[in-house]
Amino acid sequence: MTSALIVAALLAGSASAQTEVRLALSGQSAAPSPGLALPPFEAEDPKIGADALLAKNLREIVRQDLMLSRRFEVKDEENASQPVAGATWRLTVKASKNADKVSVKVKLANASGGEAVFERFYRQDAAWLRALAHRIADDVVKAATGRDGIARTRITFTNNHTGHKEIWVMDYDGENVKRLTSDKSISLLPRFSPNGRSLAYTSYKDGNPDLLILDLETGRSKTFSNEQGLNIAGGFSPDGKKLLMTLSKGKSPNLYLKELDGGPAERLTSHFGADSTPTFSPDARQVAFVSDRSGNPQIHVLNIPTKHIRRLTSLNWCDAPAWSPTGEWVAFSGRAHNKDKMDIFLIDITGGQLRQLTHGEGSNEDPAWSPDGRFLAFSSTRGGRSQIWVMDADGSAPRLMVDVSGASVTPHWSPVGR
């Protein structure tokens, strides 16, 4: 179900950085990734079998993180005495376990001369081995490229496995799936805050589609907006101080902006039809949103200081815009013709360049950017029911994140982990 249809259904119910996206826009291929040699991780004491198993398990997770980052061509090295060819970097790791603690020594070096560019000692509870591996991978990405890694990010989404639509979350790689809410009602459209410690979502648990803020550390939620009719989060401002919303107040849905510290909501649009699903630009000066003011739903852009609105798309139907972290692109779901299935598109902020990323492999909707702007999460029915998938930002390498029973929709990616 598209976000626009969700808004329509809710309305009926309530009545009762720098460019890193690797898109070859002019036919040019992306530059090849530097090679990273990855020899076996070693046990601090090779005679201790538990340490050897620890090193092996740690390597599997780090290796997957580095491959999923698309920052390197990971080259498995069977033996350190026989280095692989074509590597720019070499990552060596030694690990040990003492009681319930894990200790790890990491060294990233130039593959040619062996000079260390990054060395660090880690100590972590053994129960959090995956979290440690994700941190190591992110640190390696940062040391080698100067860019933040995304291995410690998470993806939230809505799923109806329990018979009710609840908010769920998983690690960026599909692991550690868990349910966040138990409202036993309809909970929809989760949006992470910029610090990743809370998320906003819409819930029907009190009868009206209210907007709640869920504290991810305590598990407690509080009502943020309970105006009559729709109360739907569009997204937090980059500084985390304001929240974009769709409010209907018993009438037509329009866009509003409200301080998290309280106070009245500022109305941004005044349209007799429906304005919905807003998304901030990275500088928070513009908002992309869906409006039917020109007929079928299309993506429009609002300049907040001037209140000027311009139309961005001209397809048969458009929905669920998501502004890229790098600022150049707006991802959205849409269709070119009435009988087409919904697909994922990118359009540049001038409206001059349109790229279709999916091509009718089921219905593909609800795009959500990774915080580095290199990947898109989305919902797709290509497997028979709606599930969460991730693809590279150029549409390549789509992969199913996790096979959760029921239907999963409206993903949203957390900010970079710290």
What does this protein structure show overall?
- This protein is 12% helix and 40% strand.
- The chain has three helices and 30 strands.
- The strands form seven sheets. Strands 1, 2, 3, 4, 5 and 6 form a six-stranded mixed β-sheet that branches. A four-stranded antiparallel β-sheet has the order 9-8-7-30, with no helix packed on it.
- Helix 2 (49-68) packs across helix 3.
- The longest helix has 20 residues, at 49-68.
- It is globular, with a radius of gyration of 23 Å.
Which key features would you list for this structure?
30 strands, single chain, 40% strand, four-stranded antiparallel sheet, 418 residues
Mean pLDDT: 91
**Spans of at least 5 consecutive residues with low confidence:** 11-22, 24-28
**Major sheet:** 6 strands, mixed
How far from one another are the termini?
34 Å
The total count of helices amounts to 3
Kindly state the percentage of residues in helix: 10-25%
Shape type: globular
What structural class do you assign from the helix and strand content? mainly beta
